[in-house]
Design a protein that fits this description.
By secondary structure, the chain is mainly alpha-helical. It has twelve helices and two strands, in the order H-H-H-H-H-H-E-E-H-H-H-H-H-H. A two-stranded antiparallel ribbon has the order 1-2. The longest helix has 29 residues.
């Protein structure tokens, strides 16, 4: 059961990371939020990679694989997470995160159309469930939160698409580079990219609370969450670990309702559950 428990722990940490970022987003803009998260992740991963001796064999490094990983990370974390953060500002954690977690649908479409994977019957079931979850979220309307923001919905879907593209590119690159080394280099490259586009000369208005929230978010989401996910994959395989990790939207709904006082209706909670079941069939 250790592999399954690690996968569920990963899902919880990814959800907690998003909720922590959402709290900081009340004062810090999405690009700066993503930049700081990546900075703290790189700050932690670089010493870990050095201690593990990952930098001793850089002359054997596959540059094409490294470029794929960096490009995938910029698309995945750089663009995808920034779009998610913008969506969270417009329609809250529960709705934005649930829609963004439809990314397995886009992953499946890309794999079938571009990589040549066969289309299986379970993909059809997963597609129907995923689309149903989007319809349920987009039609959600309550007195507290009002109608769902169309702009927020589009941004969450863009996040899902970029997560799918980025995940595939990184997965291809990781066939030739160790995970610890890849994470150390890609987080550093991502930080430099985000810093350059974040208007660094403009004064950043940050509080100690914001820095604490974003450092905790990066530790839970990008560092610890990434490590527990990899160990889970090693123990039970990606086909079992990934669907369990896809339970993250359910945890995000629960955590955000408790900590951020978001109103999570029965329909919204059910849409989170449905998107998780859809991810199971798609994976």
């Amino acid at each position: 059961m250790l592999g399954e428990l690690l996968a569920l722990l990963t899902a919880f940490m990814w959800a907690a990371s998003t909720v922590l970022s959402a709290e900081a987003l009340k004062r810090v803009n999405p690009i700066q939020t993503n930049t700081l998260k990546t900075f703290f992740s790189a700050l932690i991963m670089l010493p870990i990679a050095f201690a593990a001796g990952e930098f001793n064999n850089l002359h054997y490094l596959n540059l094409i694989a490294l470029l794929l990983i960096i490009l995938g990370t910029i698309i995945d974390y750089g663009i995808g997470d920034t779009m998610l953060f913008k969506s969270i500002i417009l329609m809250g954690v529960s709705k934005a995160y649930t829609v963004a977690y439809t990314y397995p649908l886009f992953t499946m479409i890309i794999a079938v159309l571009l990589i040549g994977e066969p289309f299986l019957m379970r993909y059809l079931i997963g597609t129907i469930l995923t689309v149903l979850s989007i319809i349920m979220v987009s039609s959600e309307n309550n007195k507290t939160n009002g109608k769902v923001s169309l702009k927020g919905l589009i941004m969450a879907l863009i996040a899902a698409l970029t997560w799918a593209i980025g995940t595939i590119l990184v997965a291809i690159g990781l066939k030739s580079i160790s995970t610890f080394l890849a994470n150390a280099i890609r987080f550093l490259a991502l930080f430099l990219f985000l810093y350059l586009i974040s208007k660094p000369k403009k004064r950043w208005r940050l509080t100690k609370k914001d820095l604490a929230l974003l450092s905790a978010s990066s530790i839970f989401g990008m560092v610890l969450g990434g490590i527990t996910f990899l160990f889970s994959v090693q123990l039970i395989g990606a086909s079992r670990a990934t669907p369990l990790c896809a339970s993250s939207p359910v945890w995000a709904s629960i955590i955000s309702s408790v900590t951020l006082k978001e109103r999570v209706t029965l329909r919204l909670f059910l849409s989170s559950v449905i998107v998780v079941i859809g991810a199971y069939f798609l994976f």
